[in-house]
């Protein structure tokens, strides 16, 4: 009897070991009900309205960053409430003052911010871009005119004009310098200046002095004929250049912004960039205020995060604004935590969020979110 009891105990122990092993090897379900149950006091998450990352929806938010954090909260087992702010400067202040334990929207990871805060793994790769009104810019300034004559075929045309003055001028002066009735001095200076003035008049179709020698007259006829062809082409190219410049406007990218009226949000990396590049900067509490100022022609351009500008240009700003130039100053966005958030007494929240974020990239959840908010819009 005791032998049978011993065998029964052994079999029960083996069964328990097998069940434990199977439980450890079983894959975790993506169903929220299988995730850790939220425990403890609700975290306060500071954010701001910033389509397509954060979009107001009833009493809460939707958008790429909103849905990303909601999934992370489920996976890490935390409760949270939203705390809405006006801009990134207020998000930083709320987290630093302890009014919020997390900040998320489109917060750029910078070395300066890293000194005062902790960041998650990068959650989005972005950069800055320029937005301008779609209206034709028909104002002309010395800088605009200089740009016309330094672009396209204009430098080559100016070079040809110089040759049309120098070559005929030298030929006519050489042929006329010893003629007794020549209007040109036989001395190189000032004779050559007089001859080049004659050549310039010939290029314009107006000759004040006629050469006396046969070579001078032949050169004069040839110069007038070539000049007529040149002036016809010049006029066509000049008209085309002015038309293109008017259609494009005066700002085509970040290199055109020094001295221009530029708007962005207060405390942002785009504001720092604009100050460093001598733009006439106006800082707004929200990017929506900057959009309104641009449409009312109070600004020449906006510098801000590329995804936000592209989303606005394709939605509320369609037909009113356009995004120009390349993406510059590449940046990574991260989730913001107070400094020292990995300390044991602070529940290692950043570490848990990083692990969950990496798992979202591995299982395809991140890619599905990205395609929902960005690829579909493109």
Q: Can you describe this structure?
A:
This protein has 378 residues and is α/β, with parallel strands linked by helices. It folds into 3 domains: 36-123 and 334-375, D-Maltodextrin-Binding Protein, domain 2 (3-Layer(aba) Sandwich); 131-137 and 251-330, D-Maltodextrin-Binding Protein, domain 2; 142-248, Helix Hairpins (Orthogonal Bundle), CATH 1.10.287. Helix content is 49%, strand content 19%. It has helices at residues 2-25, 64-76, 88-96, 111-114, 142-149, 154-176, 188-203, 214-248, 269-276, 287-295, 306-314, 349-363, 365-375; strands at 39-48, 55-57, 60-62, 78-85, 102-103, 117-119, 124-133, 261-265, 280-284, 301-305, 321-333, 336-338. A 5-stranded mixed sheet has the order 9-8-10-7-11, with helices on both faces. Strands 4-1-5 form a 3-stranded parallel sheet. A two-stranded antiparallel sheet has the order 2-3. α6 (154-176) crosses α7. The protein is rod-shaped, with a radius of gyration of 36 Å. It starts with a helix and ends with a helix. The model is unreliable at 20-38 (pLDDT under 50).
Descriptors for this entry?
378 residues; D-Maltodextrin-Binding Protein, domain 2; alpha/beta; 12 strands; three-stranded parallel β-sheet; five-stranded mixed β-sheet; 19% strand; Helix Hairpins; single chain
Provide a compact summary of the structure.
The chain has 378 residues and is of the alpha/beta class.
The tally of structural domains comes to 3
* Overall geometric form: rod-shaped
For the record, give the distance between the C-alpha atoms at the N and C termini, rounded to a whole number. Answer: 77 Å
Low-confidence stretches: 20-38
DSSP helix fraction: 40-55%
Class inferred from helices and paired strands: alpha/beta
CATH class of the largest domain: Alpha Beta
Quickly give the CATH architecture of the largest domain: 3-Layer(aba) Sandwich
Q: Give helix and strand order, one letter per element, not per position.
A: HEEEHEHEHEEHHHHEHEHEHEEHH
- Overall pLDDT metric: 80
Number of helices: 13
Strand sequence of the main sheet, in spatial order?
9-8-10-7-11
Strand content: 15-25%
């Amino acid at each position: 009897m005791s032998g049978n009891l011993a065998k029964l105990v052994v079999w029960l122990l083996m069964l328990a070991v097998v069940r434990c092993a199977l439980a450890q090897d079983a894959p975790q379900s993506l169903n929220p009900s299988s995730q850790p149950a939220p425990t403890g006091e609700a975290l306060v998450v500071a954010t701001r309205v910033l389509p397509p990352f954060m979009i107001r929806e009833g009493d809460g938010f939707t958008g790429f960053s909103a849905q990303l954090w909601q999934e992370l909260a489920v996976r890490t087992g935390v409760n949270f409430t939203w705390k809405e702010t006006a801009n990134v400067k207020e998000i930083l202040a709320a987290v630093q003052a302890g009014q919020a334990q997390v900040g998320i929207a489109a917060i750029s990871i910078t070395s300066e911010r890293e000194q005062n805060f902790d960041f998650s793994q990068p959650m989005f790769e972005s950069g800055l871009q320029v937005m301008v009104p779609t209206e034709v810019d028909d104002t002309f300034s010395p800088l605009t005119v200089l740009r016309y004559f330094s672009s396209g075929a204009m430098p080559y045309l100016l070079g040809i004009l110089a040759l049309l003055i120098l070559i005929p001028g030298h030929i006519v002066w050489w042929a006329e310098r010893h003629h007794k009735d020549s209007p040109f001095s036989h001395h190189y200076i000032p004779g050559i200046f007089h001859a080049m003035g004659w050549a310039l008049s010939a290029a314009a179709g107006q000759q004040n002095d006629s050469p006396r020698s046969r070579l001078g007259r032949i050169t004069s006829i040839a110069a007038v004929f070539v000049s007529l062809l040149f002036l016809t082409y010049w006029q066509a190219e000049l008209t085309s250049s002015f038309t293109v410049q008017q259609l494009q406007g005066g700002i085509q990218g970040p290199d055109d912004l020094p001295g221009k009226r530029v708007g962005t949000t207060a405390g942002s990396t785009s504001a720092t960039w604009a100050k460093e590049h001598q733009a006439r900067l106006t800082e707004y509490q929200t990017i929506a205020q900057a959009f309104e100022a641009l449409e009312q022609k109070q600004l020449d351009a906006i510098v801000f995060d590329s995804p936000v500008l592209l989303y606005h240009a394709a939605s509320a700003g369609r037909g009113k604004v356009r995004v120009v130039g390349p993406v510059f100053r590449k940046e990574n966005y991260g989730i913001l935590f107070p400094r020292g958030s990995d300390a044991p007494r602070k529940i290692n929240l950043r570490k848990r969020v990083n692990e969950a974020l990496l798992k979202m990239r591995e299982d395809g959840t991140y890619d599905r979110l990205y395609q929902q908010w960005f690829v579909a819009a493109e």
